[in-house]
Amino acid sequence: MPKRKKPMGQEYEALKDDYYKANHAGRVALARRFGIHLDSLKHWISQGDTPSVEPDDTDNTGIALDGLLVLNPAIKLDFVSFDIETSGLQADFAITLCACIKPFGQPPVVFRADDYPEWNYCRADDHRIIADIVTELSRHAIVIGHYGSRFDIPFIRAKSVKYGLPLLPPIFGIDTWLIARQNFRLASRRLKALSRYFDLGQKSDVEGPLWMDAAFDGNKEALDAIVEHNIVDCELLEKLACITFPYLKSIRKL
Q: The whole model's pTM is what?
């Protein structure tokens, strides 16, 4: 692009007025009208006198406010409680039985393994339920878990990598177990103990044989009990988050 000369006199004053009245997109168009880059236009303006019209900084995004309001974001800026139930604690030695994702103040979204066809002929293949969990989690911005940063999320992540699924996008996490450990001098920071101490409600007990019956025998009644346990955990977790939130110093990426 050949070098252009800065206009003089009234033409320059008109250019300054147009520059300070315009938003970013308007300034780009103004620079093009004079056959220069925006940086060059800024240099021209900076060499001039005090502008006759004060700059309008209320909208320098290039999009009107009403345009912003109708956008449909891919991620909801909300909090969700998240808990999974598995047949074991290590992803390479366990399968996913169910998961609960509860948006704050709303009904839970529940995933259970026996809703997928693989449950009937290859129970070790839990790629479909993992894919659906990842898809739902990816729609939210902040995930609340209890020991979730050390179990639930790493478990899901390990399964996702194994199955070649899309990785979780950058989401933020709040771990109520970690907040309790740092702030409350209690004998136990397990969800059941904290719920009892703070009178949040009764966490259901599920006996070990139920996990065996569900994972190895495919027993529907056993899985029903585990799913109910999973939902109650998320409901208690939501209440615990309300108590521990004042002690939250920062929200980290998971």
A: 0.70
